[in-house]
Amino acid sequence: MAAAAATGQDGDVIRIRTASAGDVALLAALNHIVHDLHTQHRPDLFVDSPEGDGVEAYFRARIADPSVTVLLADGEEGKALGYAVARVKNRPGTALTHSEVIVSLDQIAVVPEAARRGVGAALLEAVREVGRAAGCRRLVTDVWHFNADAREFYRAAGFSPTTVHLDQQL
User: Fold this and answer.
1) Which of 20, 28, 58, 96 has the most crowded Cβ, counting Cβ within 10 A?
2) CA of 138: how far to CAs of 49, 89, 90, 99, in Å?
């Protein structure tokens, strides 16, 4: 994806670009936005303080994966405002389902001081563009039930629920 620009709700320019290997440390630093919320609500699943090298390796692998596009949102003077991780998936058909190519939004995060200023919407539209360019007909994502803000963001962006995953401790 080539760099794209959008105007945020306060009139600021938001530049969306594809992340490169040089952005790994920045992505790892931004990851706490999402990870801290997950750790707070599901400490049984998420590591309390992940090692920086491990988080960087995670993003390095995503950037190197040809099916994944990692996007960064930059604001005024190149300040990082958020990121998104999108994956194009080929789903083979079965006797019961059609084959399809979809784009999956695996992660999205916006720095708190830029929340509700159009950064998430700009990242989401860039993910849609990734999907369109790959011939996808659907964008899918999942959201933790505890994340009411994210559920509202997706609802306002036109998403609708398809399945409900249930969890039970044994």
Assistant:
1) 28
2) 34, 10, 11, 12
